[in-house]
Amino acid sequence: MVEPSRPAGARARWREVDGIVLLDKPAAISSNHALQRVRRALQAAKAGHAGTLDPMATGMLPLCFGQATKACGQLLGSTKAYRATVTFGAATDTGDADGQVIGQSEVPPLAAETIDRVLATLVGNRAQVPPMYSALKRDGRPLYELARRGEEVERAARPIRIESLTRLAIEGAALEFDVVCSKGTYVRVLAEEIAAALGTRGHLSRLRRLWVDPFREEAMIALEAIEQWAASGGWEQGPPPGLLRVDRAFPGLPRLELDDAQDLHLRQGRALDCPVPGVEPGGLLRVYGAAGLFLGLAVLGEDRRVRVQRLFVPGAGTQGPEKS
């Protein structure tokens, strides 16, 4: 999701901010609410988030500002990891703890061996039917709007992949587990599937996103820390905590540095003749100008010439050149 570049009537207070914030989203607020609070704190003219978290969920929510909003699409398609708790015995209309109970079932003995066998059957490439309480649209309207009116429509199953599904703890009628999964996976639905496979009903009672590729090892920043920075002077004291350079979204790509002439030619859309050892035709590159400024992504053609794929200029961060 990307917000408009500048709110009408408020041009004076917004600034061009480029970068990524890995917010540790708190519970009880929507992803968009969290985005807007950080956006106001940073006074950022353009902002978007990569991957919605439900209000009850916490954890990593990548927020993209300025030039980084061009990377939102890639981050939306990334692998993600969650820590979740499914509570057995009651199903809700939303599939999570924010919904109303719509049915109850007895809870069978929750033996670790039985649970592990069930979890193993859910790993791999599968199809999953999205829930009615979701932002997916039917005829231009979000499904959750229809669900709130008591309507239910047929939803096509979508391909997903569960990379791993690991039991962590069994406490009473609740199971805590970790899951690493592809885009489009609804952990609420996964929790219901686990319950059904165990012969009962259930709902997601807790959810925390642990990481989003390629930020597995990156630390999250608390909303309070960013708002405290803003209240203490904001940009007058330097960049905000946790603001990552735009190119941190592409850590696995080879780095190509250009001289002044090549920098200009790339910006003009011209193909470059420059050696790129170890890269096969079709491979993507992170491209940097002569001053170390991240310019964007380029692709190596069959003719071994480098052509721009997408530019991330002007402005590619506030923290200066960075080698990696």
Poorly predicted parts: 3-12, 315-324
- What is the class of the largest domain in the CATH system? Alpha Beta
Give the helix level as a range of percent.
10-25%
Q: Identify the CATH homologous superfamily of the largest domain.
A: Pseudouridine synthase
Largest sheet: 10 strands, mixed
- Category by helix and strand content: alpha+beta
Query: Average pLDDT across residues?
Result: 91
Rounded to the nearest angstrom, the radius of gyration is 23 Å
| DSSP summary: helix tally | 7
Give a verbal description of the structure.
- Helix 7 (260-267) links the parallel strand 15 (255-257) and strand 16 (284-288).
- Helices cover 19% and strands 31% of the residues.
- The protein has 324 residues and is α+β, with helices and mostly antiparallel strands.
- The chain folds into three domains: 11-77 and 215-244, Pseudouridine synthase (2-Layer Sandwich), CATH 3.30.2350; 80-212, Pseudouridine synthase (2-Layer Sandwich), CATH 3.30.2350.10; 252-311, Archaeosine Trna-guanine Transglycosylase, Chain: A, domain 4 (Roll), CATH 2.30.130.10.
- The longest helix has 12 residues, at 31-42.
- Strands 1, 2, 3, 4, 7, 10, 11, 12, 13 and 14 form a ten-stranded mixed beta sheet that branches.
- Mean pLDDT is 91; it is low at 3-12 and 315-324.
- It is globular.
